[in-house]
Amino acid sequence: MSSTLTILILLLPFAAFVFNGLLSAKLPHRVAGWIAVGAIGISTILAWKTAAAYFSQSTPYTKQLVFSATWLRFTDTLQVDMGILLDPISVMMLVVITTVSLMVFAYSTSYMLGEKGYVRYFAFLSLFSFSMLGLVAAGNLFQLYMFWELVGVSSYLLIGYYYDKPEAVAAAKKAFIVTRFADFGFLVGILVLSYYTGTFDFITLTNPENPAITSMTGISFMGISVLTWALVLIFMGGAGKSAMFPLHIWLPDAMEGPTPVSALIHAATMVVAGVFLVARMFPVFVFHAPAALAVVAFIGAFTLLFAAVIACTQTDIKRILAFSTMSQIGYMMLALGVSGYASDSLGFTASMFHLFTHAFFKALLFLGAGSVIHALNTNDIRGMGGLRKHQPITHVLFLIACLAIAGIPPFAGFLSKDEILAATLATNTFYFGIATLAAALTAFYMFRLYFTVFWNSERNYEHSPHESPAGMLVPMGILGVGSIAAGLIPFGRFVTSDGQPLKTHLHMPVAIISVTVALVGIGVAWFFYKKQSDVPQKITASIGGLYQTVYRKFYIDELYLFITKRIIFNLIAKPLAWFDRQVIDGFMNFTASATNRISAELKEFQSGQLQKYAYIFLAGVLILVVALLYTGLN
Amino acid sequence: MTLLLALILVPALTALAIVFAGNSKQVKILSAAGMSIQLLQSVYLLYAFLAERSSGNTEPVLFYNRFAWYSSLHISFDIGVDGISVAMIVLTAIVIFTGIFASWEVEEQYKEFFISLIVLATGVFGFFISLDLFVMFLFFELAVIPMYLLIGIWGSGKKEYSAMKLTLMLMAGSALLVVGILGIYFHSNVNGHHSFNILELSGQQFGIDMQRIFFPLTFIGFGVIGALFPFHTWSPDGHSSAPTAVSMLHAGVLMKLGGYGCLKVAIWLMPQAAHELAWIFLILTSISVIYGALGVISQTDLKYINAYSSVSHCGLVLFALLMLNKTATNGAVIQMISHGLMTALFFALIGMLYSRTHTRTVHEMGGLMKVLPFLSVCYVIAGLASLGLPGLSGFVAEMTIFVGAFQHTDWFHRFITIIAISSIVVTAVYILRVVGTLLMGPVKNETYLKFHQATWYEKLATVTLIAGIIIIGIAPLWLSDMIMESLGAILD
To answer: What's the total number of domains in chain B?
Structure first.
């Protein structure tokens, strides 16, 4: 396998970014679009070739560093390399990222047509793809962190693409700051880990027999081993990027970005970086810090249900999908959290499998939503209905994606979700219950969306909605094929925790349960939303307070606002600025003015007036006499 | 050897030549030419230094030379550079070069302005090449004095107050320094006589009692100009009143004299006291870091914002130096360079925006991205460098500092290190807040649409600084290795 070709996977999108970025004012739109699409297109081919070459090797699939160069030396032993690490999960991610990117790039050439910042858009999109590829190919934790920050900033730039819209600016800022806060934990985790192990290198870190790691379990801080601390802190970064509760608040707002951006960054690729991170560090979690892994499972399970409940009440098409994404990532985290190693690692494989299939159908859902928004110019599903007649192709593709995410066989989501459910059932029945309940909710909210938008009664559209152009439909169609075919890949054969093939099979009892609950969910949605009816309103009215709480996303946003505005800004930053000006600087000014005043007083002694000198002289004599008498008497 | 002399001769001669220049055009061309030569020879110095090193020359300082000056007191004009000074010299050359172009629109008493500016730079160059404490102090004062005139005459707002305050506070620092330097001198004994020469002094074993007195004096003395809490209050007023190029030089270079002096005088010559007393100053500097950052949040004036953020970033420099290990100190030096470049860029851009909008209040502006795309993109890049985005210089510096600080395992160091790291979140908050209000959103004012785009000299200044930020951000290894090699002599 040629390493130069692998490097090109990363460098091509970077070159497209630099080219489009530097010439953004002068480049014709069409050229910029084609440069970006061409670059990512070649990357896609190379990624598939790399995957083919990698997986045609004999098992077990090992971690291979195909490229490495020293970037910075911290100490004599601790240094940072820029490298490309190939192993089953990074190769799989390279394929997912390039493929979905290519579809989204191609879709965008039509979707963004006529936008003023077209060239800038493609520059940023290329920057994102480069950063995301660098993240998954990273050979060490530090490199991963660097690209982690770069995807964060690309996300910031793209959410804020419509920078004259205050909501978009606020959403971009929020996304960056919330994930930055999470990265603060991540960074401290990296520092702790690298201090004790003396390395950032993944191959060394994930070696279960590494004595440096084992020794870390012996050192404890507040009763918990420093290794567990480090991993929980690292997971904090992952939870921020993957919008896990309670660091999820940025993702719904991030939907202010252009829809293809949401599809690529906030659905298919960047938000699963947290899952990838845990998977990357998985051997350390599973062998040495089961407590940290339990945290992953718990946060995953909680977010899974939490987001699914909220998704049932939202009315903005993209926000519904955003909460759905959070919920699905919850599945992936949960699966990792309950997984064991080697022959016991069904959860690991299931998580990666779901990440893989989810990328296709969730990207398709977003692009489908984009197609609808393109036609109607609104995001509110209450202003949609009956679109299946106007957008027949979008309708069919959207339905495929809905069936896939709801877990209906033979669509892709069915198989991956089945494995996750089987993995949880084998380890923790409680989590299995949550996962099953969330599966029913998933089917319900997706089909609530589907029936409201494509069935239901027509609205009074200003002009008749039109089907989207082929430039948008073809990439959607390809993702539609992926949403069916991705499930057929024998995933356990390729992607496992230890590189050894894992035998997976359909778990019949689990499958029956999951399909049943999905059908129930769909049935309820069909009953309520297929036709215009006021039953849903009546139900929501009858549980008004509860509904409002869920609709307002459990008031988590308000809580954050309270902490940041009221406490940090009003109670810390403002008093501190006052303190600096009035007390500290006040003291400096006081010193100056006091000096000034004292000197004004003292200069009276040198006034040049003879009478005054005489007075002072007399006063001095008097004092001396008194002093002498006093000391003399003693 | 002539190379180092040229570094002070070229700016001095440029200042002299300006005296005879006719009009403002000639003055500016002379300044630009002089500082271009200065930039070129600084880069050549860097090249020559690296070439010497790679050819195996491991002397602690290169291009060493000694000119007897006042031999009865053993004061001599000793010059020589190590990796740290070379890096600082290149930084200074870049900042003064771009500062000239950022002052291209100065017309009021232009001759005196450019002379003062270049004299100031001369002082800085002299400071970085000298190895004799007396001469070093002389150059230090040479850099500080023109500052008073530059702010008091060409400044804005309450300029007399700011100029006086800045000068008085820095003078108070200098007073401590004089005592500190003389203390070191009189306690030294090199072949039977006292010495000001740093290389000779570094071989001296000063008694711990002496160190306990003179380490704090020199550290605080240099710390005042490095914005050590609570002696930082000259900085917001000084910067906000100073004209653009002076702010650039002051925050970009002059504040670095503090960190450089703390390292090369206080820490190098008095290591035992440094170890013993570091904790006091670590508390002060970690306050600087987080306090400066939190202080920015509620500021509304662009220059105040950048001044407080400089308190935070320069606080991190002193914080890292006090970790007293090679990695953190390396990070401190990179942070000085990185902060120098990006803060110069910030102040240059603030000046350019001010010349168009005539305000520096953030919420009075808005939507500048639409009307001034070039300058706005530069501002975003400066902001991203400031919040430590990988690929830009700030990230390299901060990470090196944090990794270095993490070498200490006791809870005290851990705790303050984590406090310092938390500043990366606060920095993101204030940077994005400014970027969001200032550059994004709808265009605030109709008249903005008539703004002229960035001129060639504005582009030259900003692009030069950005190039520096990106080069260090993408390929930091040569710089970090160059600094690291010099630290062996200082810290071991």
So the answer is: 1
CB A404 within 8 A of CB A483: yes
Task: Please report the residues numbered 230 through 259 in chain B whose beta carbons come closer than 8 angstroms to any beta carbon of chain A.
Answer: 230, 233-234
Residue whose structure tokens are 């307002």: A552
Interchain CB contact of B428 with A (< 8 Å): yes
d(CA B432, CA A181) in angstroms, rounded, equals 14
Cβ-Cβ contacts under 8 Å for A347 (sequence gap 6 or more):
A335, A336, A337, A338, A339, A340, A420, A423, A424, A427
Asked if the Cβ–Cβ distance from B484 to A170 is below 8 Å, we say: no
CB proximity list for A350: less than 8 A, separation 6 or greater:
A335, A339, A416, A419, A420, A422, A423
**How many angstroms separate the CA atoms of A61 and A498, rounded?**
8
> Does the CB of A23 have a partner CB in chain B at under 8 Å?
no
Residue B168, chain A, CB below 8 Å: the answer is yes
Q: Look up residue A271 and give its two tokens.
A: 């938000």
The per-residue DSSP string of A146-170 comes to: HHHHHHHHHHHHHHTTSTTSHHHHH
Indicate yes or no: CB of B477 within 8 angstroms of CB of A163.
no
Supply the range of the domain harboring residue B39.
2-491
Please give the C-alpha separations between residue B197 and each of A306, B77, B129, B136, B268, in angstroms, as whole numbers: 69, 9, 12, 10, 13
Give the pLDDT means over successive 10-residue stretches in chain B (492 positions): 84 90 87 93 93 87 86 86 93 94 87 90 93 91 88 86 88 91 89 86 86 92 89 86 89 91 92 90 91 85 90 93 92 94 93 88 85 90 92 93 90 91 90 89 82 88 94 93 88 80
pTM for this predicted structure: 0.91
Interface confidence, given as ipTM, is 0.92
* A616 reaches B (C-beta below 8 A): no
Q: How far is CA A38 from CA A2, A109, A120, B199, in A?
A: 21, 12, 16, 59
Q: What is the DSSP string of A370-417?
A: HHHHHHHS--BGGG---HHHH-HHHHHHHHHHHHHHHT-TTSHHHHHH
Q: Which residues contact residue A578 at a Cβ distance below 8 angstroms, ignoring those fewer than 6 apart? A: none
List the beta strands (DSSP E) in A89-244.
220-221, 224-225
**CA-to-CA dists, residue B245 to B145, B248, B308, B349, angstroms:** 16, 5, 18, 11
CA geometry: angle at A337 spanning A327 and A59, to 5°?
A: 110
Distances (CA, A) of A562 to A180, A558, A566, A567, B235: 19, 6, 5, 7, 32
Residues A60-95 have pLDDT tens digits of 888 888 888 899 999 888 899 998 999 999 999 999
Number of helical (H) and strand (E) elements in chain A, helices listed first: 29, 4
